[in-house]
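Researcher: Go.
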Amino acid sequence: MILVNNPGDWAHIYPPLEHAPWNGWTPTDLIFPFFLFIVGVSITFALSGKEGDRMAVGKIVKRSLTLFLLGLFLNFFPRFDIMTVRIPGVLQRIALVYLVCSLLYLKTTPRQQLYILASILIGYWLLMTVVPVPGIGYANLEPTTNLAAWLDRVIITPAHVYKATKVWDPEGLLSTLPAVGTGMLGLLTGTWLRSDRPATDKAAWLFAAGSGLTLGGIVWDSFFPINKALWTSSYVLLAGGLAMLGLALSYWLIDVKHYRRGVLPFVAFGVNAITVFFLSGLIPRMMSLIKVTGAGGLPQGLKEYLYQTFIAPPFADPKNASLAGALTFVLIWFVILWLMYRKNVIIKV
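Model: Structure:
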């Protein structure tokens, strides 16, 4: 996501590094659900044995609130305008999914979780395709007139949603419900991984389940389109299935076959994932506030100046230049995170 969120030039981006305009999906559309999926998986490892621990609930609420406030701070910065600040966001959705999934893990059984997951996906499908939208008169899945968009306008209000969309939010209220479903797929996967079954059986069944979910998402797409902005139920199955396949492959290679060459760079990013996501969103904005004299004597933000002066000139194709800018940003963060990892500096939220 650091690569996607920090191109050298927003006007020149390769299609796989952009979100789908509405229905459909790109590789970029898989990043967020993959993260929510692995949040669910990690919950089963972090909270195992704490089902009766009352203090665990307090820690869950505290962590969720911290994540939500970090996301809200990113939305505030640098204007700090309470009248127009966006309320939802990526970290806010992570906070809510983590909160609900953690409590469900502590208070319900895997069988109950499966029933809840099915109810969420089917219930959301019916809400979005059957319930008439107030003021519109019929159910629909169009960007500005669907039920989720209407709810965002009523509760969050247009002044506090994503500014690019103006009247609805891609991390809005109603679509957070199926996002919880993505986290619950992770819960069930984590529970399976922690079972006493042979490792080869775990990997084989994960491959099978992931393939089935992916196929189910593709089939459901024919009458409830795959759509990240709405986080449709078909999108939950598709992204969850692909995430499960990715985890199954990683589990097979790393844990079963003990093939660990090249994994440490990913570990360095993974152990400080929230930290790097937060700072990679904050620092470019801070750099843009620092004005320097650019070409033609005109003032430029420091980030733009560095890109235009040192990265873009060698490239004839502006898309390649933009990609080089994003990769440079990722490389800088890798060096920082690698040093942190070597020194065992892990910032926990």
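Model: Residues 318-342 form the longest helix (25 residues).
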